[in-house]
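Here is this case:
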Amino acid sequence: MAADTGDINTIPGRYGTTNFLTRLTERRKIDQNREKACPSSLVRPPGKSCDEYPFAGTWQGAKHSGGEFSCCMINARQNTDAGKELKGFYTYSRVLEGDRFLVRIR
C-alpha cells in the first residue's frame, strides 16, 4: 500500500489534470492488479470488501504501473455498485483498451 504523498495533483486520473488513467481489458492483468492491491490473504471484515485505486482495470493499477496505489475496506454493496457504475461508464462512453480517461468524484 502506498503512502499518502500529500500532493493531490499526482493522483492518476484526477479530473483537471493530464495524469490520465488508461483502460486495461485483459482479464489476467486486471486480476494481477487486484491481487497485488487487495491480496486474497487480506482479511475482509463482515460486510466489507477491499477496494483499490487506481482501478484494477487500468494500466495504472497496482501490479502493472509500478507506481503508488491504495486500498481500503469499504461497504461490500457500495463497492459492487461502484464497479457496476464504472463498467457502465466504459460501455456508455466506449472506453476501449488503451483509451485514456479522468475521474471526477462528486
Q: What stands out?
A: The mean pLDDT is 91. The CA atoms of residues 42 and 54 lie 18 Å apart. The longest helix spans residues 76-92. The chain has three helices and four strands.
